[in-house]
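Deliverable D2.4 — example input (structure tokens):
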């Protein structure tokens, strides 16, 4: 640590970077409930708290009608036949518990936070919601109307319209990963369709559980008691084959909005998910380009040119695919200039080796992010969730550390030339 001669800290001096090269990651204990549900346990928290997450193969990939996944998950928070909405939420408040529900691209999840001392009565309540949600027509109408009004607002925003056009350009509007909401989709949502979706996909045969926190034998016994039975076995999830639409090699599209002062820019292409052997190294290349606040895109287009408040790039991974995306909003008068600078930074990665100082900075940033994501059993469990749906385990994180620490400037150039060729990018601007 830099100090002055008088022994006081000199805050004008930058501390030396210290490379983190190894991690000691909490491994899950793998169990199985009597009905076959796999349970992954991350224990070690001293406080009297537990987080349980039920994960189902019930995402957009399995929908027959748009919104079934997200709305079926959302409506579980509105109570069950035994515990209607107001009673369900009052009981959770009484016991100091909270729940979250989410329907994603491939999976849907129901997440519970509870104190260990109240876990038995809380799980009795949650069992009803997970297995027998009420989906009261009045609650459904309120949620649907609220979401519909929010969509109306979003459909006037250039950034929402750009995201919609971008994913549709990559996957096609009929593909689960490509279809974005239309107002008429809400007209097709009924209580019966959501109950049918829930009955088919929210079953023990289609479920995994990740539990973390202060875990003891009593927690596992309670899971077995409330969720280990054969009463909700069901069948493993199946889905009709989805049409994989080939996107154009390059698509450039500009949609004008009269009176708009902002242009939303999305540039990217279809790639692969994190099971690909080059994904981890490519994540380093992406971080250099636009994956953090000190990236090249931020330094150029925000700090130097002043075209935007923020610009980022990312690798989006789904179970059946993935894509690369650059996202920003700029003034309409500098739209083309910003696009040109984006391509300039891509080309620079291809043509010029990254110097050691910049690469060391990115290595430390990525390792710091990884360490933060592994701070305690709750966070490790969350990170593990992002691996197991791809049939990956904790060893993936060790290989990620190796990729971060060993990638060379030459390898970065090779990957940039292979995947970040401007001539292959879809370019969508709205505004």
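Example output (designed residues):
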């Amino acid at each position: 640590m830099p100090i002055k001669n008088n022994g006081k800290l000199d805050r004008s001096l930058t501390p030396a970077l210290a490379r983190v090269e190894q991690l000691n990651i909490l491994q899950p204990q793998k169990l199985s409930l009597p009905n076959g549900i796999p349970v992954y346990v991350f224990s070690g928290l001293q406080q009297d708290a537990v987080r349980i997450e039920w994960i189902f193969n019930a995402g957009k990939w399995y929908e027959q009608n748009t919104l079934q996944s997200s709305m079926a998950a959302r409506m579980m928070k509105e109570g069950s036949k035994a515990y209607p909405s107001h009673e369900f939420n009052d009981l959770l408040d009484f016991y100091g518990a909270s729940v979250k529900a989410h329907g994603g691209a491939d999976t849907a999840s129901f997440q519970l936070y509870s104190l260990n001392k109240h876990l038995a009565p809380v799980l009795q309540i949650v069992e009803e919601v997970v297995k027998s949600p009420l989906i009261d027509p009045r609650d459904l109408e309120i949620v649907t109307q609220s979401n519909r009004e929010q969509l109306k607002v979003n459909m006037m925003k250039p950034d929402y319209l750009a995201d919609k056009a971008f994913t549709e350009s990559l996957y096609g509007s009929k593909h689960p990963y490509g279809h974005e909401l239309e107002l008429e989709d809400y007209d097709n949502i009924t209580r019966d369709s959501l109950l049918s979706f829930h009955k088919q996909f929210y079953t023990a045969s289609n479920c995994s559980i990740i539990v973390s926190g202060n875990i003891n034998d009593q927690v596992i016994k309670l899971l077995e008691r409330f969720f280990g039975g054969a009463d909700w076995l069901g069948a493993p999830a199946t889905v009709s084959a989805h049409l994989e639409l080939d996107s154009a090699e390059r698509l450039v599209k500009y949609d004008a909005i009269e009176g708009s002062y902002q242009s939303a820019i999305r540039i990217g292409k279809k790639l692969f998910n994190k099971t690909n052997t080059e994904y981890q190294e490519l994540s380093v290349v992406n971080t250099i380009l636009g994956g953090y606040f000190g990236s090249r895109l931020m330094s150029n287009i925000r700090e130097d040119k002043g075209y935007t408040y923020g610009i980022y790039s990312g690798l989006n991974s789904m179970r059946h695919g993935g894509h690369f995306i650059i996202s920003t909003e700029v003034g309409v008068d500098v739209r083309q200039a910003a696009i040109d600078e984006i391509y300039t930074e891509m080309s620079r990665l291809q043509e010029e080796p990254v110097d050691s100082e910049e690469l060391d900075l990115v290595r430390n940033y990525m390792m710091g992010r990884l360490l933060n994501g592994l701070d305690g059993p709750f966070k490790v469990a969350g990170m593990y969730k992002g691996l197991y749906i791809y049939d990956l385990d904790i060893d993936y994180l060790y290989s990620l550390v190796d990729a971060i620490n060993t990638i060379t400037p030459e390898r970065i150039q090779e990957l940039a030339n292979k995947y970040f060729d401007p001539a292959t990018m879809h370019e969508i601007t709205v505004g």
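The CA atoms of residues 293 and 299 lie 8 Å apart.
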